[in-house]
Amino acid sequence: MDSIQKANPFAKRESHGQRQLIAYRILTIVSWLLIVITSVYYTFNAPKDGKYHRGTIWGQNRDHPTPFSLNKAITSVYWIVLFVGQIGYVWHLFVADEEALNAAANVGSHFIMNNLFGFAFIMLWVRSHFWLAELMLLLNFFNLSSLYFRHLNYPRAIHVPVVSGPLAFTYVAILWCGAAMVNAHTLAARILANIAIWGILVYGIFFLAAFKDYTMGFALSVLTASLGVHQFLVKTVSFQWIFAFVIMGVLFCCTLAIAVPGMFGKDTSVRQEGQVVSEDRERAPLLDDH
């Protein structure tokens, strides 16, 4: 069992050897550059190969309109902020602080996999391979969910750009790509979409109630706003944009109810400042300031 534990790149460790750290530093930077360059390139350029309809990332969003299509500007800003925040995460892999270094290394394998799944999703999405793109999103959803529940109490500088931000987007992207996958234009598909959108609210409230993780609440609020704005602009006579703005409002208010008391020194989390957190209590919310 010890040999399996040592060989498992996703295992949580108290410390990491120099060779492991060098590998994480190289693979993290390379995979991050891969996803950033791919995202930027296919934002402005359509692929030249492939037998199905080809387009840019947002060209596909326009050419395959669904009840879960997103607003280009809001979603792009969301990802720019995440990419910039991920530079801060990479920096943690080079610091002298052993605790911060170990935290960054522990999430490294999941972060690398997230970048690879994101790269595969983009390559498939822009070539209209929606079924395979959806599969990449589902695999990444399990990857990021595992990361979330196994590493709850890390600093926000790691948690937001590496865990909660990508996880929130992946959940919404599953709905976005899934709707394009089934060509959701029929009345039945739109009714189903009007029901499925409430899953975003349930998903967000789960993290707010169970972990008091307002970063998930805020991320889902922004993405729901993106959905609502796009739906309003393309189809004003529709329940989808109304539901999206209602969900955004509820999530944002609940997020503020948890985040604001913390700004004034009131601890709304289960984890109290100064306590030693045992392995059994890692399900308590993260989020102390580091």
From the structure above, extract its key features.
disordered C terminus; 0% strand; single chain; 290 residues; mainly alpha
Summary, kept brief:
It is built from twelve helices and no strands. The protein is an all-alpha fold and 290 residues long.
Structure notes:
The protein is mainly α and 290 residues long. It is 71% helix and 0% strand. The protein is built from twelve helices and no strands. α2 (18-44) runs parallel beside α6, α4 (72-92) packs antiparallel against α8 (156-181) and α10 packs antiparallel against α11. The radius of gyration is 20 Å and the shape is globular. The two termini are 34 Å apart.
